[in-house]
Amino acid sequence: MSRSLALAIVLALGFVAPEAGAQSLDGVQVAALDEDPSGEQAFADEEGYEDEYDEDYADEDYADEEMEYCGGGEMSLVDEIWDEMEYGDPASAHDTLVDALQTGDVDPWERGRALSLLAELQLRRGEPGRAIVNFQRAEHISPGVTDMSRVARATALYQWGERRQARVAARTAHEELCSDQYAVAGCYAANLILAETERAPGERLAAADAAATLRRANPDLANALDEVDVQVAGS
Amino acid sequence: MRQLLVLAALAGASLFAASPGAAQDARGALRRYGCASCHRVPGVRVSRGQSCTGCHEALVDRQRARGRAPSIRHYVHVPDLSVAGARLREDYLVSFLQDPHDVRPRLEETMPRLPVTEADARLIARWLRRDAPTVRTSPAPDRNNAAAGRALFARYGCATCHELGNVDFERAVPPEVLMGLGRAAYEAPNLRFVADRLDPDVALAWIENPRAVSPNTQMPETNLSRTEAILIRDYLFFADAGVAAAPPTPNLDLTPLSRRVSFREVRRVFDSSCIHCHAHTDGESASALGFEPSSLDLSSLEGVRTGVVLPDGTRRSILEPGDDGVAPLISRLLRRHTEAARDVRAPRQDGLAPVTRTRPEAPVGMPLGLPPVDATDIRLIATWIAQGAEG
Fold first, then answer.
1. Each residue of B41-94: pLDDT tens digit?
2. CB of B349 within 8 A of CB of B222?
3. A214–B180 C-beta distance less than 8 A
4. How far apart are CA B209 and CA B225, in angstroms?
5. What is the CB-side half-sphere exposure of residue B310 using CA atoms within 13 A?
6. Which residue in A191, B17, B46, B88 is a FRET match for B226, CA 20 to 30 A apart?
7. Could you give the 3-state DSSP secondary structure of residue B286?
8. Among A42-56, A65-79, B223-237, B314-328, which is the least confidently predicted range?
9. Residues contacting residue A57 through CB under 8 Å, at least 6 positions apart
10. Residue B114: CB partners within 8 Å, gap ≥ 6?
């Protein structure tokens, strides 16, 4: 059974896992931040992880990166790594970013953005705990820097079992993204998480209905929304 | 590079069109103000790959298909002037071109304020209206029909997509439904301007059968009877737009930051929009969108320090305080916040400013037509300037 089908069944049943069974985030947060209270030097990463990237990330057809960076400005190191994540090899992007953070090659003013990007990469690798810590560090250094990653942050919290925080993050993401006519996938993801984490059954059902509405209205985005199903459910 | 070539081409076109012989020609005026860089314009051909909107649409399509929130969401779709101009009143077009206002409340961007003269505005308006559709003569709008028209307006769900000033039709539309409706919902105009924009006959024809007036419109077929259409039109001509909303009051704290700010950090702000027009000029003056020919390169430290250079070599610093004691670079960004109080209003936050025909006060705010630069970014730039504008 595919994960998207499984998630659809979960949504249809309105199943909600008990919050008491959630994994504890507190330990991760405190331990990580205690080592570096300012959050300016450290980032969450560990050696020895498996390389689990899906080759589908590679988009051979996309060959106009210059057009992507509309405006003609020069790309910073973090821009280049973001580009590599989106249109190249996310594993390589991760390694490059970790190296850059370790060697201090990231400009101090871009460190918050770099940590947010690292968190996104870690979420894709199935490492939501580390992703959460890096999102926190990013926000600690540069408030607002994770605004563009609200869904990823909500997804990481949801996967880690922090249902209450995931709900808060997903609501914020929903408010921001669902007013942007082009952010269909982000709005859809926020609704998937709310369909699992809202307190009231009616609200969970409404969020599931909203996600279904987006699917029906955007048949051209079926593949992208399938991908969102997988990302939210976790690998 | 493609964007730079486009801008260079537009700049070249506008310089060519500025010759005295072409000044009275409407198409010359359309070129001079760079209308085709965003709009489809009759008589001025620009391919999709050579226009701002064509490039933006391609990017949005790609990113959207990948499940990403597009990095660009402004100037993706703009009115096709080959049809949009034909249905609007000439006087309205003349005023709008000189003093644009927020027509589509769900879009953050607006028509940019360009230095359009009244003569050029009139030339353009007449050219755009040369193929104005012929519509049936209809009865004059009757105020006595307004109440019945309002009821029909609400019953048929017109308020799903349209705003009418700040009138609350008590119709809560989930954002996902708007997304499902797509462009029709986001580009739906604020109907408080109907009497300014449309002749009664055109308004009625539009309500009865929008595709007969504009074949590619996003407005769905209404299937209204003529009587119903007349009632709704009459409501729109006499509708009370509600109570004006207060303008936004951003916190524009420019107190310098205590930390060091580098040009690379500042340039990131420029990269977000400024650099589209102000980059890589190689010292060559260019004219685009009807503004005075000049060069300003915000992509390099040297360029920013050099400032604006006029064709005769005169240099104007953008960093040294002007008469108001503020660096022109900062004052332009702050002015956009003032303009945005009228130009960028969210749904149901309408200031109810009337349509006017006043040329924008010079210099205009930057970035043109877009939401203002965030106050924290302006503070960042102000800090950098206060620290000596170093690398």
1. 876 766 555 678 878 888 888 888 877 777 788 999 899 887 888 899 999 999
2. no
3. yes
4. 10
5. 7
6. B88
7. strand
8. A42-56
9. A89, A90, A124
10. B33, B97, B289, B290, B291, B360, B368
Tokens 């801008």 map to which residue? B7
Q: Which amino acid is at A208?
A: A
SS3 of residue A116 by DSSP: helix
Question: Residue B69 and residue A177: Cβ atoms within 8 Å?
Answer: yes
Residue reference for tokens 């300012």 = A38
User: CA-CA distance, A190 to A155, in Å (whole number)?
Assistant: 8
ipTM, 2 dp = 0.80
Look-up of token digits 């400013």: B353
Tell me which DSSP letter residue B295 carries: B
Q: Which residue has the tokens 């080592």?
A: A35
A16 Rama class: left (phi>0) / alpha (psi -120 to 50) / beta: beta
Residue A20 vs residue A197, higher pLDDT: A197
Coil, helix or strand at residue B44 = strand
Smallest CA–CA distance, residue A30 to chain B, in Å, is 27
CB B283 within 8 Å of CB B313:
no
Q: Which residue stretches of chain B are H helix? A: 2-17, 26-32, 52-65, 81-87, 90-98, 118-128, 146-155, 175-181, 183-186, 194-197, 200-208, 210-213, 226-238, 263-272, 301-306, 328-343, 375-386
Give residue A44's pLDDT.
53
pTM for this entry = 0.80
Distance (Å, whole) CA B272 – CA B367: 10
A74 touches chain B (CB under 8 A): yes
Q: How far is CA B368 from the centre of its chain?
A: 8
Shortest CB distance from A72 goes to which of B69, B71, B280? B280
The residue whose two tokens read 């010359």 is B28
Q: Between A and B, how many CB-CB pairs are < 8 A?
A: 122
Our CA-based measurement puts residue B241 at a distance from the nearest CA of chain A, in whole angstroms, of 23
Confidence label for B9 from pLDDT (cuts 50, 70 and 90): very low
Rounded alpha-carbon distances, angstroms, from residue A46 to A49, A91, A95: 7, 14, 12
The tokens for B39 are: 């709009």
A63 reaches B (C-beta below 8 A): no
Structure tokens at A117: 């990007």
The answer, for B48 touching chain A at a CB cutoff of 8 Å, is: no
What span, in angstroms and rounded, lies between the C-alpha atoms of A48 and A117? 20
- In one letter, which amino acid is B337? H
